Amino acid sequence: MFRTILFQLHWFFGISAGIVLALIGLTGGLLSFEHDILRWMNPGVMSVTPDGQRLDPAALLRKVQAALPDRRIDAVTLSSDAEEAATINIAGSNPNDRRGENRHVDPYSGELLGKVRGEAFFHAAMRLHRWLMFDDLFDNRDLGKQITGVSVLALILLALSGLYLRWPRRVFNWRSWLAFSFKRKGRGFLWEMHAAIGTWVLAFYLLAALTGLYWSYDWYRNVLHEITGAPLMQRGGSPRQNSANRQVSPVLPPEAEIESVWALFQNRVGDYSRATLRLPRHPKSKVYSILYLDPSPPHERAFNRLEIDPVNASILLHDRYAERPFGAQLIASIFTLHSGSYFGLAGQVAMMTASLAMPLFAVTGWMLYLDRRRNKRRVGLAKEVVCGDANDGSWLIAYASQSGTAEQLAWQSAAAMQKSDIAVSVRPLGAISAVDLTGRERVLFVAATFGDGEAPVNARTFVTNMMTKTVDLSALSYALLALGDRQYPYFCGFGRELEHWLSACGARPLFASVEMDNNDTGALMAWQKGLYDLCGAAFEINARDAGFQSARLLKRTLLNPGSCGLPTFHLEFAVAENCRWQAGDLAEIAVGVSANDTTNAACRRQYSIASIPESGGLHLLVRQVRHADGGFGKASGWLTSEIQIGDDIALRIRGNPSFHGGDEDAPSIFVGNGTGLAGLRGLLQERLRQGRHRNWLIFGERNADHDFYYRDEILAWLHEGHLARLDTAFSRDQEARIYVQQRLIDNAETLRAWLEDGAAVFVCGSAGGMAGGVENALIDIIGQKGFANLLETRRFRCDVY
Predict the structure, then answer these.
(1) What is the pLDDT of residue 415?
(2) Pairing of strands 586-590, 648-654
(3) I need a surface site. Which of 245, 285, 525, 764 has the fewest CB within 10 A?
């Protein structure tokens, strides 16, 4: 469960924050060597030809002030490099501009040099890197700063969750962590590149993120200073204060005063590589400050600070970087840690490379996500020809699937066997217990291999609980289809490991195991032949579109007017007499086409059916999806706003046996949120039709006044005794958010009593949050063993999306 949640979080933050992180990475890489690139582009501006003796700061400032009589000079920066230009900082005209304007000066003649080419480009890159240029596009720097800050937090989660999700079983095999090959292809290549390169750059991304947050959030900066013990420097003043400082008359201090300050600096320090002399900003202040680097500094931000009072010819402060506590050194090195230059040129190049690689993860992540969605659709097409309750069959097909291919082949195999009148059930390998195997004579396994010979996620429970021990399977016969990629060193590694375990437990093969390399048709034909020889099942690779019928819209009612959520509608359709379904089944809608031409549908969507056939029509509960651009979801928008009363649509029933109610008279607990009430309503209608009233409904939404769907019907059931109990969780009706899982915990004793009386639990609604929360609540209340018993006895059934 934890791994599943982490995987969902990983892909969600990857596809949502990925584009922003790609921009941050690209611009960060471009900024890595900004100064070196600009100096290379600007000979004669940022660099000069030595010509005699360099001017001292006082003479240099005098010449610049004469050239710029109306501008106030705040600082001058000199370098020990004879070919590097001096830099003058001039107060800007904008009171919000604390940094002012930098101009380059010939240190030998005092002549102002030209504008720096490319500076505007790097300035734009910096604004894109830090604020997404929201300061220019929307005049809202803070909003851009918040978006980049949240994205950087997402990067930390992506890095740590990615590490956990790709953790190999062979921990000490370096190839499992770092190797990938361009010879691979398809999804395997994408995943391997995403995982391996992600491991390479993991430390760099964490370092860049943890230091980048320093500029995003004041609270984070304050915490760092608190932890390290470094004093928190005042970051500028208010706009009014800055404006007052900038409006001081542009007159230099006396030249003799500047000369005496510089002499004191040289006497105290001696050699330096770079020094910035900052002039007093206000006539009442006579204190000069000098930031300087030692001749061989640890990095370009290892500044020492000197404060000098020229009146008393005294040094007020001499703060040396090398003498600071380690924590204070780290705070002073935040920028160099962020850029990698803290670790020298190699670290700077490595950080630049990692930053420029950031778009790779956005692209491969999206490609893997889209491929996974395509495979899910293929699985849906494979399932659609399997109808009825196959879970009571004498044959079992167990699949271990990572991307969906193994699951698709499992369902296709089941469809072929059903056409030969063979009862068969299909289950994920992780849901298989020892009882399932010892109680069967024949089992087909379809097992994919994930990563470097590992089991897919949905098979990890089986590996842990079953394959670590020996089970007597001497009565079991099996067939195995193992999926893999020969370009990996452990081709079909999990499939072979599974077969070795089956053999060690005494199981016998029905026919030779088949190993399929990617989509090898030869191997697939061998599997088809094995099935045909075994039971006469003619295996079809592609399921056909069949079973669509016309359904006419009779009624559409908005159920939540005034809700703060999205509009939710009740729809009623008239269907043909031969259109039959069971409570818990799904309706598949082909959007925008007739029942005779479903191949050209814009899309297909499945909805839980909110009624039983005896109610006189097929009911759906549909929430209208709206995108960020204001557009509607293809299916929900079409159903709730485009088709008109009396229009026909293409609809077919999709059996959902895993969510069917039982025939037993035991009590039932129905838990759902939002439009998940649809599936529960159908099950409750069937229970009421059968005269079974030991029903407990737990329903959650936003507000009771607007979002209590089918309120009158449900309250009537409660009043008439058809519902033994009703609990609601309307999350927005009080300050503290309350959800359905909390209602389970609040009524733990009652829940235990119902379960001890044989109650089954039906969960319908959102998979992201609600379903996992309900499962965790049940585990908290009845324990892991108790929940496992619910699964084994099929008393915990889900229809989540």
Answers:
(1) 81
(2) antiparallel
(3) 285
Greater model confidence, 293 or 197: 293
Indicate the DSSP class of residue 767.
Answer: I
- Sorted by sequence, the CB contacts under 8 Å of residue 341 that are 6+ apart come out as 299, 300, 347, 348, 351
**What does DSSP say about strands 618-623 and 568-574: parallel, antiparallel, or unpaired?**
antiparallel
Report whether 601 contacts 590 (CB < 8 A): yes
CA pair distance 604, 627, nearest whole angstrom: 18
Structure tokens at 163: 């590490």
- Residue 620's nearest CA partner among 562, 679, 580 is 679
- How many Å apart are CA 667 and CA 658, to the nearest integer? 18
Give dist(CA 501, CA 434) in Å, integer: 13
- Is residue 783 within 8 A of residue 775, CB to CB? The reply is no
DSSP secondary structure of 190-239? HHHHHHHHHHHHHHHHHHHHHHHGGGT-HHHHHHHHHHHT---------H
DSSP secondary structure letter of residue 769: I
Nearest-5° Cα angle at 550, 544 to 555: 140
Whether 393 shows a pLDDT value over 60: the answer reads no
Dmax (CA) for the chain in angstroms is 106
Please check whether residue 606 is in contact with residue 588, taking contact to mean a CB–CB distance below 8 angstroms.
yes
Burial of 315 (C-beta count, 10 Å sphere; 0-12/13-18/19+):
middle
Contact yes or no for 500/476 (Cβ under 8 A) = no
What's the rounded Cα separation, in Å, for the pair 450 and 368?
14
The pLDDT assigned to 454 comes to 80
pLDDT over 60 at 543, yes or no? no
**Strands 514-517 vs 568-574: parallel, antiparallel or unpaired:** unpaired
Task: Name the pLDDT band for 239 (thresholds 50, 70, 90).
Answer: very low
What are residue 696's DSSP bridge partners? 669, 725
More confident site: 3 or 316: 316
Closest by CA position to 129, among listed 236, 10, 32: 32
pLDDT tens digits along 135-153: 888 888 889 899 999 999 9
> For the residues 374-388, what does the mean pLDDT come to?
51
- Put simply, whether the predicted model's pTM sits higher than 0.85 gets the answer no
Handedness of CA 447, 448, 451, 456 (dihedral sign): negative
Average pLDDT value for residue range 311-326: 92
User: Exposed/middle/buried for 797, CB within 10 Å: 0-12, 13-18, 19+?
Assistant: buried
Confidence of residue 245 (pLDDT cuts 50, 70, 90): very low
Share of the chain above pLDDT 90, in %: 47
Give the number of other Cβ atoms within 10 Å of residue 693's Cβ.
Answer: 14
- Around Cβ 202, how many Cβ atoms within 10 Å? 17
Residue 545 confidence (pLDDT) above 50: no
Give mean pLDDT, residues 206-226. Answer: 92
- The full 3-state SS of 458-480, as one line of letters, equals HHHHHHHHCCCCCCCCCCCEEEE
Beta-ladder partners of 553: 573
User: Tokens representing 411?
Assistant: 């369902």
Identify the bridge partners of residue 764 per DSSP, sorted by sequence position: 672, 799
Q: In the prediction, which pLDDT does 98 show? A: 67
Give the Cα separation of 675 and 587 in Å (integer).
Answer: 14
Least-confidence region, from 241-245, 511-515, 596-600, 626-630: 241-245
Alpha carbon of 696 to those of 204, 671, 759, 761, 779: distances in Å? 52, 8, 10, 10, 19
Tell how strand 477-484 and strand 514-517 pair up: parallel
Residue 196 is predicted with a pLDDT of 82
Structure tokens at 317: 């402060």
- Using CA atoms in the order 528, 532, 535, 539, what is the torsion angle rounded to 10 degrees? 50
